[in-house]
Design brief:
Layout: H1 5-10, H2 13-19, H3 24-39, H4 53-68, H5 70-77, H6 85-101, H7 109-122, H8 129-140, H9 151-174, H10 176-182, H11 191-197
Helix pairs in contact: 4-5, 4-6, 7-8
Length: 204
């Protein structure tokens, strides 16, 4: 399949492969996925001729920045992936956020982020991703900076606490197996946003 302009801009597969530590199986799976889903639409027309790649990438970038903020995303999260950074950026900006989490035909941005936060928390990913998305949910509700004493941030924090309590209630209701999987003791608190991530970010 011919390289799409976006993929070429992110770096050729051959070039990225030189610095990648992805296993052969993982690389083959990813390549098969992209080849199938980006090659043709349902009516047999080449998908690469029917989608606006630049628009998908742009909306993914807008959405992910609204949640994470530029500083946290590009200076603290993406660099954690080391050799995989270019691959993860492409997957997150184009596929995860561009194609899926920026499609607001059924859910609003706030509803989408709430679903993401709840899902990640209940999967037991509380020490990293859940905290990032707790912060992201707060950002979509209007929280900015580090002034936890401001009235607007206080209201946002109260809402986030109520969401966490509701989530915990559901997990406890489902039963012991879900309690073990969800790892409630690792779930972040709103105070962790300032303590661990240095606040809600200043960018819009």
């Amino acid at each position: 399949m011919a390289m799409t302009p976006l993929a070429a801009a992110e770096g050729t597969p051959q070039g990225k492969a030189k610095d990648s530590q992805l296993s052969e199986k993982c690389a083959l799976t990813l390549n098969s996925f992209l080849t199938y889903y980006l090659a043709y639409s349902d009516d047999g027309v080449p998908f690469r001729n029917t989608i606006d790649r630049d628009a998908i990438h742009a909306r993914g970038l807008d959405t992910i920045h609204s949640i994470y903020g530029h500083e946290l995303l590009h200076n603290r999260i993406f660099p954690q992936w080391g050799y995989h950074t270019a691959d993860v950026q492409f997957m997150e900006l184009f596929t995860v956020y561009g194609l899926y989490l920026s499609d607001f035909e059924q859910f609003t941005p706030l509803e989408t982020e709430l679903i993401v936060f709840v899902t990640i928390s209940c999967l037991g990913l509380g020490t990293g991703p859940a905290l990032w998305h707790l912060r992201g949910l707060g950002r979509l509700l209007g929280a900015r900076g580090m002034d936890d004493k401001s009235e607007s941030v206080r209201k946002v924090k109260d809402l986030l606490r109520n969401i966490k309590v509701a989530m915990m209630g559901v997990v406890e209701f489902v039963g012991e197996a879900f309690l073990v999987k969800a790892k409630l003791d690792t779930w972040p608190n709103v105070g962790d946003v300032v303590r661990v991530l240095d606040g809600w970010g200043e960018d819009a």
